[in-house]
From TrEMBL:
<comment type="similarity">
    <text>Belongs to the TRAFAC class TrmE-Era-EngA-EngB-Septin-like GTPase superfamily. AIG1/Toc34/Toc159-like paraseptin GTPase family. IAN subfamily.</text>
</comment>
<keyword id="KW-0547">Nucleotide-binding</keyword>
<dbReference type="GO" id="GO:0005525">
    <property type="term" value="F:GTP binding"/>
</dbReference>
<protein>
    <submittedName>
        <fullName>GTPase IMAP family member GIMD1-like</fullName>
    </submittedName>
</protein>
<dbReference type="Pfam" id="PF04548">
    <property type="entry name" value="AIG1"/>
</dbReference>
<feature type="domain" description="AIG1-type G">
    <location>
        <begin position="27"/>
        <end position="229"/>
    </location>
</feature>
<dbReference type="InterPro" id="IPR027417">
    <property type="entry name" value="P-loop_NTPase"/>
</dbReference>
<dbReference type="InterPro" id="IPR006703">
    <property type="entry name" value="G_AIG1"/>
</dbReference>
<dbReference type="InterPro" id="IPR045058">
    <property type="entry name" value="GIMA/IAN/Toc"/>
</dbReference>
<keyword id="KW-0342">GTP-binding</keyword>
């Protein structure tokens, strides 16, 4: 518990996260939670992050999401970054979720040590926010959620087709999306999931995520399991 907030803010220090594998390499393990509305592109973003196709993606059938329960996939990126002169691996544990917010208990079971980065996924071409989203995030993580969150706007290909530059898009979008974009400390990243191999598409996202976590000294937010959503 963070004594200043009382909201289960987990004070992991870097050395508890960096551990040595059998080959004497340092490894940084980050838990990443994907959240978003139905068909926002969460599973596609998950695939970009892990550089694979293992999360099942596709159109909704009869209004039912492709993803109906939380699923965790883990991927190691050897020698991904350097810290204090030493090469470190980056291990991502990515949790895909059903639409909007998953039950806190399901997330807690998959990562009891907490979530380092929340990736909030929205469609750039459908920028109407669920009005309770921020409220739910606060219920799930407490007021620190925005320090650990980055916003990914998928379907950026539609902006390209409309010849709309991302920076211009952000000035013209809805007030609620603009406010959210300003609130999340990780900022906004546009993603076109229809192009490139997942591993290429995921590179800027992995970099951004690592920077955000480093800014938080790799502390993790614990899920507040006493609430139900
Ligand atoms: N054109 C385009 N299609 C995308 C993009 N991202 C996702 N899609 C497509 O949108 C559909 C839904 O993507 P998913 O990644 O399954 O979305 P999801 O949020 O996990 O969906 P559910 O689990 O069903 O709620 C799939 O057919 C994807 O191929 C994108 O950036 N551009
Ligand atoms: Mg899905």
């Amino acid at each position: 518990m963070d004594p200043s907030t009382g909201h289960g803010y987990h004070g992991n220090n870097l050395f508890s996260i960096l551990s040595r594998s059998s080959s004497e390499r340092k490894v940084l393990t980050l838990n990443v939670l994907l959240l978003g509305d139905r068909q926002s592109g969460r599973s596609s973003v998950g695939n970009a992050l892990i550089g694979g196709q293992e999360f099942q993606t596709g159109a909704c059938i009869s209004g039912v999401s492709m993803t109906t329960e939380c699923r965790l996939l883990r991927r190691n990126f050897p020698g991904y970054f350097r810290r204090q002169g030493a090469e470190s691996d980056l291990t991502l544990r990515v949790i895909d979720t059903p639409p909007l917010l998953p039950q806190p208990q399901s997330v807690h079971e998959l990562c009891p040590e907490g979530v380092h980065v929340v990736v909030l996924v929205l469609r750039a071409d459908l920028p109407h926010l669920n009005t309770h989203l921020e409220e739910h995030l606060e219920t799930l993580f407490g007021p620190e959620w925005c320090r650990h969150t980055l916003l990914v706007l998928t379907h950026a290909d539609h902006l390209k087709e409309a010849e709309l530059q991302p920076a211009v898009y952000l000035t013209q979008t809805t007030d609620s999306l603009r406010a959210l974009a300003e609130e999340v400390v990780g900022g906004v990243l546009f993603l076109d999931n229809s192009c490139d191999w997942p591993s290429i598409r995921g590179q800027p996202l992995r970099d951004r995520l690592l920077r955000l976590s480093a800014r938080n000294h790799h502390t993790a937010l614990t899920v507040r399991t006493e609430v139900s959503i």
